Amino acid sequence: MINRPIYLDQLINFKDKEFIKVITGIRRCGKSSLLELFAQYLKENGVSEENILKINFEILEFADLTYKELHKMVKDKADSINGKLYVLFDEIQKIDSWELAVNSLRVDSNIDIYITGSNAYLLSSKLSTYLSGRYVEIKMQPLSFKEFLTFYDMESMTKDEKFKLYLKIGGMPGLRELNFNETMINQALDGIFSTVIMKDVINQVSVRDSALLNKIIMYLSNNIGNSTSVNNIKNTLISDKAITKGTTGGVIDNYIKYLENAFVFYNIKRYDIKGKEYLKTQGKYYITDLGLRNYLLGSKNTDRGHILENVVYMELKNRGYRVYIGKIDEKEIDFIATKQNEKLYIQVTETMSDEKTRQRELAPLKAIKDNYEKIVLTTDTLFTNTDDDGIKILNLIDWLLM
Prior knowledge:
Blueprint: H1 5-13, E1 20-24, H2 31-44, E2 52-56, H3 60-63, H4 67-79, E3 85-90, H5 98-106, E4 111-117, H6 120-130, E5 135-139, H7 145-151, H8 159-169, H9 182-202, H10 210-222, H11 230-239, H12 249-261, E6 265-272, E7 277-287, H13 290-297, H14 304-318, E8 322-328, E9 331-339, E10 342-349, H15 355-366, E11 373-378, E12 386-388, E13 391-395, H16 396-400
Helix pairs in contact: 4-5, 8-13, 10-12, 11-12
């Protein structure tokens, strides 16, 4: 297994702390492998094999466990060994009332608990109710571009060629075994997508119209980075005769939330910089993995500007930022990224070579009068590393590798 230190280091930092460690993310993004990496770390640092209990609830052996049986199994194991028991629960949401077992086990000082889950609704609702303030969440994503380079052998390729490949196949770690075979990659992505939709959307919530769900998925995939609303989606689907006028916005809104809860799409809100308030309308959606988008859209996948925005948005999330769209007067800033006392204003554009484009991208940043860092990210190499009124113009690929 290839290490993913951005996540493993978080688990190591919280090791032996009383918090339950909760790893969330879309299926097949590497959560199970992260647990294996952590178990390996424990053994390499003096923890005996018998002090590590790993349970994958997708294995038939554990599929029918009740929460009481689970509690007894772990408690009996903890009582039979010397020292602390490290418990690694994979896809725990499959067990009804799992939170009752975990909450009871949490108070045992000789048990350190780590869990993964692929549905935000099931995890967040249980955690907020029974474990409020007693857990930390590690939000796992598919491979970043920097991680992508460590997973594949691409020594003969240029940096730009590697980036184009990343935009094409995305960051699902399991694709590494397929040696860039496009047919096999599409088959694998089909399997991942079908599993996510069936297990974490249709089978988890009351989706009565799978055809409508699929139309919403295709709409959101085709409109990443575009300002949109539930009404926009509804009206577009009606005009395309994809749905009838009787379909309510509430149904569409619920289906979108189901997709967000399965970590397929992320919704980003708009923030008025002058008014210092969050706006309820015209947010944007980005997809968790561009490989999945390419699989869904095929030859339709042509909007390179928004594809680059998608990469930047996911990278900012990987780096721990909270991300919003910026609005100042009638101008838009692609991203406002904040964490602790840090704030970044970021514009993303494919090129800065055209003067009109250059001025269009710089104008919103120049309108902001505070002293936080302002950046334009571009795939250009000839128009970077220069400051314009304090605005940094950086090569996007170099920024991803920082």
